[in-house]
C-alpha cells in the first residue's frame, strides 16, 4: 500500500511514521479550494456548539457540513459539477488513506477568525460517545484539507504536540511536536 500511495501521490511526504502523518501538497486544486469555500458560504457557517461533556469549548470556529449525496441531511451541492467535485475529493481521500470511501464522514468546513482556536484533542471517539460511534464506528484516519494560505507567523497552524518530528539532521535532533502551516490545497493525513 505504501508504494502505491507514493506512486499515486508522488509529492506526498512522511512527516511522522508513528502516528502516521503524511502531507499531500496540492491535494486540492486552487479551483477546488475556491469552490468549497463558496459552497460553505452559501450553506452558511454557524458558530460551533460546545462539545457535550466538556467543561469548556475545545473549538471556537464556525463550521458547516457539506454532503455530496442528495439523500444526506447536509446535502450542499447546487450543481452536478459540485457533486462530482466533492465525490472526486472523497475518492482521493479513500486512495490516500487506504480506506473504503464509504468509511468517510460528511465533509466539515471550519473557518477560524483571528483569536479563534481548536484545543489539542484526540480525533477518535471516546467510549462514552455512543451516538457518534453508532453513526459509523471508530475513526481510523482523519484527512485535513487546507483551503487558504496563511503567512508564516499568521497563526492557524495545526499542532501535533505529542509527536516526534522526523525532520532531523546532525545539528538538529528530532524535536517533540509537529506544526503544519496552512497552505491552500494541502492535505494532511
Can you offer a commentary on this structure?
The protein is an alpha+beta fold. The protein has four helices and nine strands, in the order αββαββαβαββββ. It has helices spanning 2-8, 30-43, 80-97, 130-134, and strands at 13-16, 21-24, 46-47, 62-66, 107-111, 144-145, 158-164, 176-180, 187-188. A four-stranded antiparallel sheet has the order 1-2-9-6, with no helix packed on it. The protein has a three-stranded antiparallel sheet with strand order 3-4-5, with helices on one face. A two-stranded antiparallel ribbon has the order 7-8. A hairpin with a 4-residue loop joins strand 1 (13-16) and strand 2 (21-24). The two termini are 15 Å apart. The relative contact order is 0.20. The mean pLDDT is 82.
Blueprint (SSEs and pairs):
Blueprint: H1 2-8, E1 13-16, E2 21-24, H2 30-43, E3 46-47, E4 62-66, H3 80-97, E5 107-111, H4 130-134, E6 144-145, E7 158-164, E8 176-180, E9 187-188
Antiparallel strand pairs: 1-2, 2-9, 3-4, 4-5, 6-9, 7-8
Overview in brief:
By secondary structure, the protein is α+β, with helices and mostly antiparallel strands. It has helices at 2-8, 30-43, 80-97, 130-134; strands spanning 13-16, 21-24, 46-47, 62-66, 107-111, 144-145, 158-164, 176-180, 187-188.
Strand line-up across the major sheet: 1-2-9-6
Helix/strand class: alpha+beta
The oligomeric state of the chains shown is single chain
Q: Runs with pLDDT <50, length 5+?
A: none
How many beta-strand segments?
9
Average pLDDT number: 82
Q: What's the shape?
A: globular
Q: Helix proportion of residues, in percent?
A: 10-25%
Number of helices: 4
**Which sequence of SSEs, written as H and E, runs from N to C?**
HEEHEEHEHEEEE
C-alpha-based Rg, rounded: 17 Å
Please report the distance between the alpha carbons of the first and last residues: 15 Å
Q: Please report which band the strand proportion falls in: under 5%, 5-15%, 15-25%, 25-35%, 35-45% or over 45%.
A: 15-25%
Largest β-sheet summary: 4 strands, antiparallel
Amino acid at each position: 500500500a505504501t508504494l502505491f500511495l507514493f506512486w499515486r501521490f508522488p509529492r506526498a511526504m512522511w512527516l511522522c511514521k508513528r502516528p502516521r502523518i503524511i502531507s499531500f501538497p496540492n491535494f486540492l486544486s486552487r479551483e477546488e479550494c475556491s469552490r468549497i469555500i463558496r459552497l460553505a458560504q452559501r450553506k452558511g457557517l454557524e458558530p460551533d456548539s460546545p462539545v457535550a461533556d466538556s467543561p469548556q469549548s475545545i473549538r471556537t470556529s464556525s463550521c458547516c457540513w457539506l454532503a455530496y449525496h442528495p439523500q444526506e441531511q447536509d446535502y450542499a451541492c447546487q450543481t452536478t459539477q459540485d457533486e462530482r467535485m466533492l465525490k472526486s475529493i472523497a475518492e482521493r481521500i479513500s486512495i490516500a488513506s487506504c480506506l473504503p470511501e464509504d468509511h468517510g464522514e460528511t465533509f466539515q468546513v471550519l473557518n477560524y477568525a483571528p483569536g479563534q482556536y481548536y484545543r489539542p484533542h484526540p480525533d477518535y471517539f471516546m467510549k462514552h460517545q455512543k451516538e457518534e460511534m453508532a453513526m459509523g464506528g471508530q475513526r481510523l484516519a482523519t484527512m485535513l484539507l487546507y483551503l487558504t494560505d496563511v503567512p508564516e507567523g499568521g497563526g492557524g497552524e495545526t499542532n501535533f504536540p505529542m509527536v516526534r518530528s522526523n525532520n532531523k539532521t546532525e545539528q538538529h535532533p528530532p524535536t517533540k511536536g509537529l506544526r503544519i502551516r496552512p497552505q491552500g490545497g494541502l492535505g494532511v493525513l
